[in-house]
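Example complex used in Figure S2.
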Amino acid sequence: MGFVAVPARGRRVFKGHLAPGEHFIVLGRRHWASIAEPVGTTVVSFFLIIALWWQYEQTEHRDGSVLGIIWLFIAARGLWHFAQWWFAWFGSTQRRLLQQTGILFRKQAMMPLEKVTDMNYKRSIMGNILGYGQFIMESAGQEQALREVNWVRYPDETHHAIIDTMFGPKPAQAAPHPPPPPPVELDGYDDDVINYSVDDWEAMSSHDEMPPSYPPRAHDAGHGAHPGSQPDGDVDTQVLDLRDADALKSVSWQQYRPDPDPYDD
Amino acid sequence: MPAKVKQWLIWLLVAFFVFAIVRNPAQAANVVRSVWDLLFMTVAGFLTFFGELSS
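Predicted assembly (320 residues):
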């Protein structure tokens, strides 16, 4: 089975534990090598005990079924480890690292990605051969809930996905809530006309979430403002006449920043 | 560094087993058989002991 960044079963495990808009970028169980010993012991001891049992009954002609009971304990231990592996998940959303462990006592640990000051990625010799790795997160806090993550399977892919999220190009952020439009008292003088500048007209007009009324064209139709104003990219300043009620209504205020920082580009 | 030392010892042990099998297969088989016999006698002893106790 190849690398699946976010298996559906793992997503169900964390259902209800994610913030709105949060989604996993990578998620998975531990590497199988983490339970190789208990499972291997269970299988090997099965054959060993069968052989001992058989030889005992052959040579001593006595009942050796106690050996079967001993094996049941070994098998129970193996099963317990397997179940722990089955229910343990580690992954990363675009905002934090998340780990869930435990069957009877469930524990969920997390670490916001912004808080991770340093991340070590280690692979031992066996890790290189079998394909697992170890992450060690350093953060400003004293005792972190999620410091060491062992047995990361597909460690290269996982590491890459996390690093990409931490340092890669950020996806376009949704516009923050717009400030309420300033209360204007119109007295008919020239200072009623306020200049609003639009920094990047082209980028904004290609924005996906543009309200249908955008760009405001009311004043272009001859309601006031500049007779020669052009709504296209080469013009970065629009003049809005606050005396014009229709033009005001058609303006989407969140697109305008009243006082642009001259040093901000 | 104890973890590293342990790792080295394990690899050394594995290498020795391989070396022993290659160098003298018959004797290596004998060693395995005697180890098995020792294990079996221990287990059989305990089984008989507890069997006698409960009978």
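Helices of chain B lie at 2-23, 25-54. Residues 46 and 52 of chain B are 10 Å apart (CA to CA).
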